[in-house]
Design brief:
single chain; alpha/beta; five-stranded parallel sheet; 9 helices
Length: 199
């Protein structure tokens, strides 16, 4: 399946852009959704996480307390490395399975860590939804009610905006209104249809 990797920093508008591609009938695989699925209750991965971090990493319903886990891994790099070593192969396997089952002329893989992980190897082309860091911080704070320190830690743990711009094949600036984003997605969609057809 010919696949576009859609990425961007926190608060950049990846979800809004991917929803617009979905309106064109394009199959969207979201790495964040897959990451949640592989740690659902009763999964082997969740069992290993609870064994490693302790049972209080789970909430009262036996689900992963993601906020608690996030606080640990963003303050301890060795714990972050341990978690990534466990989860990244599982996430990659599930993403490949979903992409192989895609039903549209091409597929979109949405991943905030597209360039930071080997997920960029799963795609034929990359699309960056770009936003200056100051706007990322303000939009993420409004959306998630996260504190500024935690948002900055997430930004610091991702590739810099400059590196992403340098590595992306295509870029959509999301500094404008929603109508502009829609027009840009429409334009890229037609371009991707052509590229996928040529394969």
């Amino acid at each position: 399946m010919w696949t576009v990797g859609l990425t961007g920093g926190i608060g950049s508008g990846k979800s809004a852009a991917s929803a617009l591609f979905e309106q064109h009938g394009i199959c969207v695989v979201d790495a964040d959704v897959v990451a949640r699925e592989v740690v659902e209750p009763e999964t082997p991965a969740l069992g290993k996480i609870a064994e490693h971090f302790g049972a209080d990493i789970l909430d009262a319903h036996g689900k992963l307390d993601r906020a608690k886990l996030r606080a640990i891994i963003f303050s301890k790099s060795d714990e972050k490395n341990w978690l990534e070593h466990l989860l990244h192969p599982l996430i990659r396997t599930e993403i490949k399975k979903k992409l192989n089952n895609a039903y549209s002329p091409y597929a979109i893989l949405v991943s905030p860590l597209l360039f930071e992980t080997d997920q960029h190897l799963l795609v034929n082309r990359t699309l960056l939804i770009d936003l200056p860091e100051a706007l990322q911080r303000s939009r993420a704070a409004k959306r998630d009610n996260s504190n500024a320190e935690q948002i900055q830690k997430i930004i610091d743990n991702q590739l810099s905006r400059e590196c992403k711009i340098d590595r992306a094949d295509d870029i959509i600036s999301n500094m404008h209104d929603f109508a502009y984003l829609r027009e840009e997605v429409d334009r890229q969609h037609l371009h991707y249809l052509e590229l996928a057809h040529e394969q």
